[in-house]
Amino acid sequence: MHHSIFTPELAAVLGDAFGDDFAPTTISACSGGSIHHTWQLSDGKRQVFVKRNAPQALPQFEAEAAGLNAIARAQAFRTPQVYGAGQDSAGAFLAMEFLALTPIGKGHDAALFAEALARMHRMQGSRFGWEDDNFIGNTPQSNKPHESWPLFFANERLQPQIDLARQHGASSNLVRTCQSLAEQVPCFFVDYTPQPSLIHGDLWSGNAAMVEENGERLPVIFDPAIYYGDREADLAMTELFGGFPLDFYAQYRAIYPLDSGYEQRKTLYNLYHMLNHLNLFGLGYLSQCERMASQLLSWTRNQ
Length: 303
Hints:
Number of strands: 12
Distance between the termini: 63 Å
CATH superfamily of the largest domain: Aminoglycoside phosphotransferase (APH), C-terminal lobe
Largest sheet: 5 strands, antiparallel
Order of helices and strands: HEEEHEEEHEEHHEEEEHHHH
């Protein structure tokens, strides 16, 4: 029954990673992820987390592996160790270390998470973008490098989502408003020049947690859509769907204060994610996108 999960190709990837044969004694389905099927494999000593999907998901898995490895190199967060991605008769797979995750609590957990995020955000690149394109959910995400953050955000973030929304039959009102807004992005950066920080890119509470190891609580992030961008984009996303303890925000600002104007820019950054939801999940997100885009555009006209 589990032959389609633990295939010879997956066994070979795990054998290479561990340096000896991995023969699972238990294989159990995990709940969670809306995009991929996920499994926990154990041989009694080692726990492996496997994601599976159709063969065409391999580029997504490879991009996720690259993002996790980049986060690991930053040495701010605990992140699952990647064992490898590949294809087999069942489709594409990504194998990584299984972590027993728990939610981020108030107080100590929130402070540790804030500290780790600030440390990662202090890792900076020379330009905005990333060496490879990746994905935001199932949507391709362009990371073509730019010297200018407003141009990067307008051209590589808003514009591709506007084009998709047009193809998906979103209202001409939304498309027109967003198009005008994309041209006005520099208005949000008159007094603020962000640095190209290493950011997670898809930091909602479902991609953040804690793990307990050797009696110590460690902050964890996973499922990245990584690139060098304005660190405020990560903080904006944490606020979009909630789920982070309130004291996380106070702790982060105490370590790495935010510039004025964040409230406007927060809505701009979250419009990218709401347009992506519109494009992935349908027109139920239309009125919220229209509201955000109109509010932002009228703000630029009052400057």
